[in-house]
Specification:
The chain has about 350 residues and is of the alpha+beta class. It has two domains: about 140 residues, PAS domain (Beta-Lactamase, 2-Layer Sandwich); about 150 residues, 2-Layer Sandwich (Alpha-Beta Plaits), CATH 3.30.70. It has a five-stranded antiparallel β-sheet, with helices on both faces. The radius of gyration is 43 Å and the shape is rod-shaped. The N terminus is likely disordered.
Length: about 350
C-alpha cells in the first residue's frame, strides 16, 4: 500500500493502473471501498468514475469536486452532461468514441466547465473497465490550461525570434551589399573593384590570360552639374552607368563607379585590341544617348573620355599600379581633346 500511495502522489496517474486498483479492491475486496477512496484521494489530479452507458457519476475525489465546484451529494446520480461538465453532448460523444475505439486513452484534451461556468483545458487519461457486467470509465483529469498557454507563448516567442533572426540576416545581407555597392548607380563601388582587381591580378599571374582595365570619365561634368543642377547630374550618372553595365556581356566582367563622374570596367581574359574595341563602343553608345550638354566644348551631348590598359603575367607592375596606368591613358585622352579612347603603351 505504501508503494501504491507513493506512485499516485509522485506523478500523473494513468488509467490502467487505477483500473487494476479498482478491480483489486472492488472485485476481490468489495468491503475495502474505503481504502480505494483513500487511494484516489491521494492523487494530485481530479479523478471521477462514470457509468459508460448513461454517464452517471459513481465516485469522484475531492480534487474533482473542488475543481468542478460540486459536492458529492450534487454529483451522485447526475451525468457529466447534466451538470454541464462538457460544452455539449457532442463533446462527450467525441470522448466516448475515442475510448470505445480502445480500452484506454491518454492525453485526450478538451475544455471542461465548472459549476460557475468557468472553463479550463483538461488533459484526460481514461480507462474502460467492467465490474459485475457493468462498464465504467475511470478518468483522471489534469488542468493544463497554464501549461498550454505557456507553450503557446514559447512558440510565439520562438516565431518572433525566427522572424527577428531572418530580419537581422536580411539586414546583414543588405549592409554587406551596400558596403560593396554604389548607392547612386547600383554599380560595384571602389572597395569591391579593388578587391576584384587584386583577385584577377593574382589569377592573371597564374595563367597566360590577359587583364584589361578601362577607365571612363564624363566630359565637362562639373559644368554639366553647374548648368543643370545636381539632381539632373545624378540622373545623368545613373543613365551613363546603366549604359556601361549593359555594354558588358560576361559574368566575369565588372563595371564599377570609381568616384564622382569616373567609372572603371574590369575585363578579365581580354586582350588589348578587344578592350580597345569595347571602350570605343562604350564611348559611342554614351554619346548616342543624346543627353543634352549645351555648354560642352566637344559635343552638344554628354560624352566621355576613355583610357585603356592591358596587362599579362609578364607585367612587372604591382597590383595597386594597374588602375594608375588606365588613369594615365585617360588623362591623355582628355589632354588630346576629350571624347576619345587612348590605350596605355605598356
Amino acid at each position: 500500500m505504501i508503494d501504491l500511495f507513493s506512485f499516485l502522489i509522485g506523478g500523473f496517474v494513468v488509467g490502467i493502473f487505477l483500473t487494476f486498483i479498482l478491480n483489486y479492491f472492488i472485485n476481490k475486496f468489495k468491503k475495502e471501498k474505503l481504502k480505494f477512496m483513500t487511494i484516489i484521494e491521494t492523487s494530485p489530479d481530479s479523478v471521477v468514475v462514470t457509468n459508460l452507458s448513461d454517464g452517471k457519476i459513481v465516485i469522484a475525489n475531492n480534487n474533482f469536486m473542488q475543481k468542478m465546484q460540486y459536492s458529492m451529494e450534487e454529483l451522485l446520480d447526475e451525468t457529466t452532461v447534466s451538470i454541464k461538465i462538457w460544452k455539449d453532448q457532442c463533446s462527450r460523444e467525441n470522448f466516448l468514441n475515442a475510448i470505445k475505439n480502445s480500452e484506454n486513452i491518454e492525453k485526450y484534451e478538451d475544455y471542461l466547465y465548472a459549476k460557475d461556468g468557468s472553463k479550463f483545458l483538461g488533459c484526460i487519461s481514461a480507462n474502460k473497465m467492467s465490474i459485475d457486467g457493468e462498464e465504467y470509465i475511470i478518468s483522471i483529469i489534469r488542468d493544463v490550461t497554464k501549461v498550454r498557454e505557456t507553450e503557446k507563448k514559447l512558440l510565439e516567442s520562438e516565431r518572433k525570434y525566427k522572424e527577428l533572426a531572418e530580419q537581422l540576416k536580411l539586414e546583414k545581407e543588405i549592409a554587406e551589399k551596400n558596403s560593396l555597392t554604389d548607392g547612386l548607380t547600383g554599380l560595384a563601388n571602389r572597395r569591391y573593384l579593388e578587391d576584384r582587381i587584386f583577385y584577377e591580378f593574382a589569377r592573371m599571374k597564374r595563367t597566360w590570360m590577359e587583364l584589361s582595365i578601362i577607365m571612363i570619365d564624363v566630359d565637362y561634368f562639373k559644368l554639366y552639374n553647374d548648368t543643370y543642377g545636381h539632381m539632373q547630374g545624378d540622373e545623368c550618372l545613373k543613365i551613363v552607368a546603366n549604359e556601361l553595365n549593359n555594354s558588358v556581356k560576361r559574368a566575369t566582367d565588372l563595371v564599377a563607379r570609381y568616384g564622382g563622374e569616373e567609372f572603371v570596367v574590369l575585363l578579365p581574359n581580354t586582350g588589348k585590341e578587344e578592350a580597345h574595341m569595347m571602350a570605343t563602343s562604350m564611348k559611342k553608345n554614351i554619346e548616342n544617348l543624346k543627353i543634352i550638354h549645351e555648354l560642352s566644348d566637344v559635343s552638344s551631348y554628354v560624352t566621355v573620355s576613355v583610357g585603356v590598359a592591358t596587362f599579362n603575367r609578364d607585367t612587372k607592375l604591382p597590383c595597386n599600379m594597374l588602375i594608375q596606368q588606365a588613369d594615365e591613358a585617360l588623362y591623355l585622352a582628355k589632354d588630346y581633346g576629350r571624347n576619345q579612347v587612348v590605350a596605355a603603351n605598356l
